[in-house]
Amino acid sequence: MEVRKLILLVCILLAGIAAAQPARKPDVAYVPTTNDAVEAMLKLADVSSSDTVYDLGCGDGRIVVAAAKLRGARGVGIDIDPVRVSESRANAKKAGVEKRVRFEENDVFEADIHEATVVTLFLLPELNVKLLPKLLRDLKPGTRIVSNTFDMGDWQAAKQAIVGDPDDEGHPFSHRLYLWIVPQRAAN
Asked: pTM here?
């Protein structure tokens, strides 16, 4: 009987470990956006209480949490890593904004983002470019897109902002921010 209990316990532990693994390997390593850059991104996008902010690759949820706490916005964080999603939910609860935000474990290339009025990103340049057709297809005209550090290839930003000192050694990210606005669709 003890062997059965031990086998059952091992199976439960292994199932828990498997459940905490991402559906596939994340496209980027987790590097958190600095708090100064979070505030600057929200300001650049002119986030207000009427907005729904989607953070694609939300990591620990800090952008969505800040949008809710500082600007009164609603938010959705999407990350492929279940550990990050769990961490995001805990951070939202700690900040007291869990009723204004939600986090989902999903692939940013497959997630439903059509309700966003603001989208935030901190992905690599090639992923931004790969994501661009989805953004232009799924988002309503006028939706603001803000990227930390990396641009969108040939799509010129409507605005840019600098946070801190871009030449600060040891801190290469979270200094240059880009804003785009989804254009009106061409009539067919």
From this structure: 0.85
